[in-house]
User: Fold these one by one.
Assistant:
Number 1:
Amino acid sequence: MPFTDHRLDGCVHELVESPFDGGFTIVRHLPEVPPDQQEAYIRELLSHWRSRATNRTGLMPLEEWCFYCGNDRQYTYPDEATHQTDSGLIRVVTLKQVPLRTGIPIDRTPADETYSRKNAYGALERIILPSHDRRIAELDAGTFGLCLQIAASRIADLARDPNLKYVTFFVDGNGVVEDCGFIHTQLQVIGVTDVPKIRIAPQLQRSLGFYYGQQKERCLTCETIGTELKRIDRIVLTTDHFLSWIPYASRSPLEVCFTPLDHAASYEETPPSQFAELAGLILDVVRKLELLLGTRFPYQLKLFNAPVWSFGRFPNGSPEVKREHIQNAFHWRLVLDPNLEIPAVIREVVDYDINVLPPKVGAMLLRLPDHEISKWTS
Ligand SMILES: [Zn+2]
Ligand SMILES: [Zn+2]
């Protein structure tokens, strides 16, 4: 007997194109049915995601096996930097197993038939918090803000390496990528010799096209968040300098973007006084997500940043683009991407992402006071 989910009768599916990178997401909108039936659909989704998060078998290594606890530093190169806090030492380290290296000559020979090659030049540093098992949601805004600020200073430092064109950071929240992701909250700063071709190059291209091609007075993101602030229904939370919202074409349910309200291309140029504010906003959203999804849901926090290289040809074969062009046209943002659905092969073959929770419903849930969020999961 074919499986039929009657709750889906009358759902409208839209193909929504992201203005930022041109990717398409199939967004499901709820059917025109009585509110209690819509509520039942949302509750079932939340309970499905919660149970998957709870059942995850992520290993929590014991402290005695941990790379970072104690003084056993055989697995890491000497610390790049350290910062003393009330709860211990925040370390910036490079693991010896990391395949990328800086400070070596770039060697592109020999080419291999149709493949071009070079040695794996790059940087991958970890900013590691002292506590073995404390989640991001358990940090205070001051400590997490210090981590965000250290990430900015590492990006600025790596940007001085003329071989690196793009430097960013990400957080593997609750170990979605690595088995050991449950241990030690850590921000990973990565610097590479090319502007990433799938995720970043199209964003730059579209940002430049919007600002210079269409001769707009504001960048694409400033224009987008201006519209969002007027509509309000996809806004999650705001502070004096930052906004969090769920984009119309978000790639997955409850994906949240964090953006400075004033135009800013490079994350590393954020005024130091604003990092605790940004951290507080991110923590508020992560805590609300934990109320909805439980404390073990996997997520990534990713920075989409302006490239650090000063000028060059971009995109392929185009006239030279100068740093000031990028600074005018691009606007950095952090994306918190909860990995709630198993990725469909459809993404791999036709590039479509699928979002089964309407963005404005996600934003509505995350705007609720904590005690009301709990009612949705009880
Ligand atoms: Zn540890
Ligand atoms: Zn802007």
Note: The chain has a mean pLDDT of 87.
Number 2:
Amino acid sequence: MKLIGLLLASLLFVSICSAKVGKLQRANGLSKDDFSTVLEHCEANLPKVWDTLTSIRENGVNVRLTPERKMGPGKASGTDQIVISTFFLTKDLPKFPEDRLVIVLLHEFGHILFNRETDRSQRNPVKHEFFAFAYSIKAAIKLAENSDSGPLQEVVKNVKIRNETGKPKDPHTIAIKELIKTPLWTTATEMLEGN
Ligand SMILES: [Zn+2]
């Protein structure tokens, strides 16, 4: 599993030299003991998640853990903050296997990159989601090219599901409808068919 860490560090990320390593932080409502337990759980049982988190932090992003679950598995804000729900990290949910959690982290990092690379006038919720989904797919393709197709399988599966079942006015759904018309999507799905 060290391999994925090296790959993530070398392939995915763009601004390592300028960034200072982001902190792992504890949200209000998460005890110090629970914080330690969650970190130990991730490091021991979710090595891909752990390596992805490390690579994202090495790009200057602070990662805050919260026991809040209503917000969903993850949420990015600004240019250096991601919040992750400990519920999704620790509960062994059938719909959120480790490979999907990796995609969640990459998606949220995509939002951070979009905020870093654009100014406010270039952003809207659909463009934000499009960039984040596309970023996670590109990163998953690189992992698949280097012998781990698990994250790519998860992102393709879940994009297809959201395309079918997402609320039509939800920016995620609108972005997905655009994304599946792109060459990137064709590449992603063909890679899996070739497996
Ligand atoms: Zn998003």
Note: The radius of gyration is 16 Å.
